[in-house]
Amino acid sequence: MAEIRKLEGKVALVTGAAQGLGEAILKEFALEGAKTIIFDIDANESNRVKEELRKTNNDTELVIIDVCNSDAVNIAISNLYKKYKKIDILVNAVGGFYNFDKITDVTDEEWHKVININLNSAFYCTRAVMKYMEKSKSGRIINISSGAGIAPNPHAPSYVPYGAAKAGLLGMTKLLARDAGEFGITVNAIAPGTALTPRVKKVRDARSISNIAKMNPLKNIIEPVDCAKAAVFLSSDDARYITGITMMVNAGNLIF
Asked: What fold is seen in the domain 11-195+224-248?
């Protein structure tokens, strides 16, 4: 008996899919049968991911785009809908920050940049896909937030712009879940802890990573695939009546 893949025939768009958690989610979606779409500004890394998927017989659509540009997002998503006649899943995975400045040192430019990439981009992409999901009377929207959007990490410095943006993303998730429900659309968030992404491996040495793991109740540090598995679940029929939640994937380092 052939294995039933959880996302067979679904069209899934993942922002920030050229690296990190977005890449892991996109690849896991492909393994589960989805037609995947990379939405990313980094052409080199996006093409690397596309080539890696091609080698496993999983083709992916590639859209090089600045998701902080609302006009570009509207045009790109309109074109994708014309091509595929639907968009079943949106994962807003793009995000990041640049330093740990105290609030008194944060410039207006820095604040707007962090809010733009972590919150505005999710709003632009969500707004653009909503009308097509409403038309289909179905859809899954998943926002990749962070523990920083829930509470300060007691073991690490805080960065107000990033925490504020990720908290805003959680608020948007809850509010939209209520409004989108009548159209059969679920909206959920994933709040990862520190994950062993290539970026984390680059900026932290083995001792630092080991110390983070020891602070977690499960005495381990999460892998990107852990978030990807959570995203597959929330995108699947198994989670058809789950909406408005924040799933914390963090080995227990933040428990609420």
From this structure: Rossmann fold (3.40.50)
